[in-house]
Structures are given as C-alpha cells and as structure tokens.
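Example protein as discussed:

>
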Amino acid sequence: MTHQPELSALAAADPQIAGLVEDEAKRQHDKIRLIASENYVSQAVLEATGTVLTNKYSEGYAGKRYYEGQQLIDQVETLAIERAKAVFGVDHANVQPYSGSPANLAVYLAFAQPGDTVLGMALPDGGHLTHGWSVSATGKWFTPVRYGVRKETGRVDLDQVRELALKHRPKLIFAGGTAIPRTIDFPAFAEIAREVDAVLVADIAHIAGLVAGGAHPSPVGHAQVITTTTHKTLRGPRGAMILSDADHAKAVDKAVFPGLQGGPHNHTTAAIAVALGEAQKPEFSAYAHRIVANARALAEALVERGYDLVSGGTDNHLLLIDLTNKNVPGKPAAQALDRAGIELNYNTVPFDPRKPFDPSGIRLGTSAITTRGLEPEHQVKVAEWIDRTITAAAGEEQSALDTIAAEIREFLAPFPIPGYSA
C-alpha cells in the first residue's frame, strides 16, 4: 500500500516527511471523507502539481513577463485560461490567485476603496470570512453590512438583502458562501445590485464544479465578477480563479498582479488546466449530478433518523446539520466521527446560541465520496454510521467508535482513490 506516484526520491532524502505523506494517503483511503471543501484529484492533476514547473518564476501575464524563458509557461497559462473561459462561458479568466481568499481580496482592490461599504452574507448564516466578517481584513479595511437567512426557512432572506442594499448603497455585493445548502438565486441578486449600482460578485468556490457540470445554475450573465477556488467540487488543485465580463477584466488582472501577488505558481496553473480539461468531458457532468443525488439521498436518510437539517435539506453538495436535538454539540460530534472513520467539520448554524469554536452544528459534503464511487443507495449506510457515532458520542461510548471505524474500512476497500495503491 503506497502513495502514487511512488515517493522513492522523497523517501531516500527525507523518510520522516515521506512517512507522513504515506500515512496521510492511507488515512484518506480508510475514511469516509465528508468535508465539504475537500475532494480527491485525479492522478493527472497530482502529477501536474509535482513537475519541474515549480522551478520557474513568471511575474506578469502571458506575453508580458518580467523574466525570460517563458515560452512554455505562457502556453500552460493560456491553456488554463482558455479552458476556464470555455467551461464557464465567460469573457475573461485570471488563473493566478493563490487561493480563494486572495482572489476575493483582489476583487476589493479592483473595485473598492478602503472604507467603502460592502454587503455580504453573515458568517454564522453561511457566509465567508472574506465577505466582510469582522476578524478578516475585509471587515477591518471596509465597512461591512451583513445579510442572513430567514429563521423559519434557513434560506437567504432576499427581502433583507434588498432593504440593506437600498439603505447602505454598497460598492460590492457578495452572493455565495461556505455553508449554503440551497440554490443561490443569482438573478435576484443581480436585480438588487443593478438597483444600487453595485458590482455583484458571485463566490462559487463551493459549487464551481456543479456549475461547470450543469448541476447548479450559473452566475454568468448575472454577476460581473465571479471568484472560485479550483478544488472542492471542481476537483482541481489548491488554487483559485477570477472570472469576469470584458468590462471588468482589466481591473481584475491589475489587482491580482501587481496589486497583490508576484509570480504565479506554475505547477498549480498546469494542474488547474488539467482539471478544467477534465471538466469539459461529458463524464464530469454526470459526476456533478451524482454529487447532488448523493447529497439529497444522505439528507433524506438523516432526516428519517431525526436530524435537523438547516433549510430542511439540500440542493447541492452540502448539508448543514443542527445537532441541538441530539444533545451533543458540533465539536465533540465531529471529533467522535473522525475517530469512527467519518471526516467532517463542526460548524455554526444560523441563530446559533453557542460560540463559533464550540458550535451546535456540523457541515458535510458529498464531493469526495462521489469521486470515490459511492452512489445514492450507499447513503443509507453512511447515515446509519453517522447516527450510531453521534449516539455513542452523546452516551460517551468510546469503544463503539472503533467498531464503526473497522466497519468503514472494510466497506471502503472496493472503492479506490487516486493517489494511493491499496
């Protein structure tokens, strides 16, 4: 059982790191990974991230670099850009942001001034730190106004969004977030943004793969600017992109470089290109729809077991569960699930009375298990293991967790993962 590709040179040079990588590969193989922001990349994406492209420094953009020797790097980046434009149907793509947070920060730099008002979803209701939350630079350098969800439905309160927009006249409006289990109404956000002359930014980091595969409506044509990571449902490397219409392209590029970053990570750019090439294939669309089918099946199985899902279910890859009625907070539940072979994260839920580091909920997603080959019919068993684990955690029955972990290892044996030969 080894990491693929094999780590022979690494093992010879640094056996301690090689051993940790091997152990992590086994851990990823042996657990049901339900962290909504994670996935398994293909062998091709893995190989692209480990190439000699990591040796090359490439400040600037294709055809306009500050270092020589860019003849091939320019082709790599151009391929990534053209594939991004084709997959998402946009005028412009910048594939250089190092991750999602810098991508969002570049949008602020491009279209706002320090102190300007920005409207984003409140973090406890499902938003993201970089949408103006107080501990983020975006909440310190700009004037944040926050919208939330309706208590009775758990869905975005668009009436509140419009009311706040009309009152505060923000320069930027963010649609999207990190724990939103329902379809985002991009046309409604666009109508509000037009009414107050704001730039609408669609942060589709979580749902980019679903958008690419036609399993979630696209923000293209509604949002002038779109930010996304390239991992999660898109199943690429740890990177990011900013997509835009033609009118906003120049400001985006200037904000990324030289505004925020130096040389792009060329090995990551290559891996993004590979992932986008995979996303152009018909089987990727089928994969995106299976993600949603698996999430809905898991949601139904958990509801049948008495779990309280925020908004009552899901339209995408993500489930947000309030564990208040199960008499166990999110953090000990997540820790027990990890020991039992189920990996997810504790998470605040809307109107959560508990603190963020010890919240009432858990968040889970189905991207990784779908990559691995699990189908909707398997979700009843997954829900059973989740329920048994949380029941054991509530009763402090630690021995039951090891039993469940053994069952899960046996169950997962026929479902291989890229990057590990079992």
